[in-house]
Amino acid sequence: MNILSNIGRSSLLAAFLFWIINLAHDFNFDYFPYIFLSLIPIYLCCAIVILFTICPIYWFSVSELFNKQQIFKTYFPIYAIIMFVLCSYGIFKAQTSIFAISFFVSAYITTLHSWVWFAKPKKLNDQTTYST
Amino acid sequence: MKHITVIIASILFSTLFYDQKIGLNLSIFSVVCIITLMISNINKFKNKTTIFHTIIYLHTAVLVFFQHTSLSILANILAFITLLGSVSESRSSIYVQWYNGLFTSIAGYFHRIFYSKDAQKKQIKKDVDVLHLAKLIGVPLVFMIVFIVLYKNGNPIFNDLISKINLSFINLKWILFTVLGYFLFSNIFNPVQIELATNKDLQTGNILHQTELFSTDILAKEKQLGTVLLFFLNILIVFYLTTDIISLKTINWSEAHVVSSQVHNGINALIASIAIAIIIILYFFRGNLNFYEENKILKNLAYVWIILNVLLVILITLKNYNYIISFGLTYKRIGVKIYLFLTLAGLITTFLKVSKVKNLWFLFRVNTQIAFVLLVVLSIINWDYSITKYNINHAQSLDLDYLITLSENNAELLNEYRKANNLSSNQNKKIITKYQDYLKDVNDRNWQEYTYSNFELKAITKTSRNHEYTK
After folding, report:
1. Is the separation of the CB atoms in B267 and B339 below 8 Å?
2. Counting CB atoms within 10 angstroms of each CB, which of B39, B95, B170, B230 has the fewest?
């Protein structure tokens, strides 16, 4: 599992989602410099969330008998539901704040995508098989 | 076919919900969901369970339009999740259907990305083109924007020209909302199932089986402990019931605070008593004690305890009933009734579990089904309207301030009551304000937000106008 690559991809996805929602609400050319600046806090947020909530599940569960795909099948549904409940609660609490809404929506989609990136084999010629 | 269906459904989703409140849109959305599910899973809709859940979902959709209560909206959402779970695997227990249904609606897309082998191969072939296309559009776009921002500050004429670009005709929010609809419909198009939970559930029956660790000595000791415990608990509950019946006769039903504390204390005792009763019974009848030949006394004591707990439920029902007669209906009092019904169902299913040697899963399955059916049945009633009507017509002591705090569903009824009775100026004012707010809310609705009250109000207005003309 390449954690750095995952955090990098997740940060770009999160930044894209966060700003697309904010710009849809209030489009202004003056925001564009901030998009690049925002990559730093977004990267930090992604790193913290991925390192503290997703990685430990893989680190502590992976073994010869329990591979990444099986970890995904076991824990991903529970993680997805918990994230959905937490993010929905966040959105519900901050009904009028577009900043909070974009933050929680991007957090939800990014973390779920991060799970898929961790569990899926990296290359086409990768011999990893799925036990569906 | 999938993409066309999902795109059409997502555009409908935006048309129905973008910047709208809940009303007719949720009912139409339910029909759209059923059609979408039918297109992709027509074979699953030949199954009786799925047909049953479809009917329940449609039923709750109709209720949202007619009743427009929070309960009917909640029942509609739960029926939607249940239907998704049923399409995913109709033979599974209702709580596994909820699990599958919820997971499908919130993360089905990610689950599908992970599982699809063919799609992965195709996607990798496609990825080259898509990536190149993204670069071709994205990189120049990003740099164009960066340089526009830089040049804007360098030249006032350029700045003026850029400021005149008006992109307001593009409703980005609407587009994002449609994307949300696309995400939802692509999630539910082919409902997914959580393999581990579903397989485990399908493999687990309702009947308890004797295990290999059958030891007569251990079971004899366990039976002894259970018998002594249940014997004394039975004596205790008999004593409690006797004193409760005596106290029932001494309550002064005209004093609200006394009755309130009596009923609420009774309920608290009941909650603790029933919960502990069921846990103790489940503990002793969790395994091989069910197959121990000399367990008759223990079983009989368990039956007696269940029956005595049913008596406790009846006593509390009686108190609650008297309370309602004196002071009318409130949500809390209805909640007590619902709780009592569920407790009764829990006790009956525990009785069945012990007598028919069922396992713990049987209790979960039956009780969650009962709770779901109860929610759907309760959503048929417009509670705010019913509470107001009952209290105005039957309650010995009317709490009008409480009725005013209820939702707008009782505004019309309260206004009629106001016209017919002499109320205090404060209450009069509150009711008039509530009725005016209700009229404004109903009249300001878009077609997506329509409910039955829109048509009802039109009919009333028309009738009153006709009366004016005839006068």
Report:
1. yes
2. B170
Cβ-defined contact of A112 to B107 (cutoff 8 Å): yes
Q: How confident is the model at residue B49 (pLDDT cuts 50, 70, 90)?
A: very high
Question: Rounded to two decimals, what is the model's pTM?
Answer: 0.84
State the Cα–Cα distance between residues B412 and B433, nearest whole angstrom: 12
Interface of A with B (CB under 8 A): 20-21, 23-25, 27, 29-30, 32-33, 69, 72-74, 76-77, 80-81, 84, 112-113, 115-116, 119-120, 124, 130, 132
Using CA of residue B8, residue B174, residue B27, residue B76, what is the dihedral sign?
positive
Which pair of structure tokens corresponds to residue B225? 């402990």
Measuring CA to CA, which residue among B27, B29, B24 is closest to residue B12?
B29
Number of CB pairs, chain A paired with chain B, less than 8 A apart = 64
pLDDT < 50 positions in chain A:
124-132
B101 contacts B208 by C-beta, under 8 angstroms: no
Tokens representing B319? Answer: 């108190």
How many angstroms separate the CA of residue B25 from the nearest CA in chain A?
Answer: 21
| Contact call for residues B370 and B92 (beta carbons, < 8 A) | no
Query: By C-alpha distance, which of B406, B282, B401 is closest to B346?
Result: B282
- Nearest CA to CA, how far is B191 from chain A (Å)? 14
Residues 6+ apart with CB under 8 A from A103: A18, A90
pLDDT above 90 covers a percentage of chain B that reads 38
- Find all residues with CB under 8 Å of B429, minimum gap 6, and list them: none
What are the tokens at A64?
A: 């010869």
Nearest residue in chain B measured CA to CA from A68: B114
Nearest by CB: A81 against B102, B146, B148 = B102
Question: CB under 8 Å to B120, separation ≥6 — which residues?
Answer: A120
Reading the block at residue A98, the tokens are 């577009």
Residues of A in Cβ contact (< 8 Å) with B121: 124
Q: How many residues does chain A have?
A: 132
Q: Which residues of chain B make contact with A23, given a CB cutoff of 8 A?
A: 172
Q: What is the ipTM of this complex?
A: 0.87
Q: Do A29 and B99 touch (CB under 8 A)?
A: no
Spatial contact of B320 and B337, defined as CB atoms under 8 Å apart: yes
The residue ranking higher by pLDDT, B376 or B293, is: B376
Instruction: Give the span between the Cα atoms of A58 and A69, in whole angstroms.
Output: 10
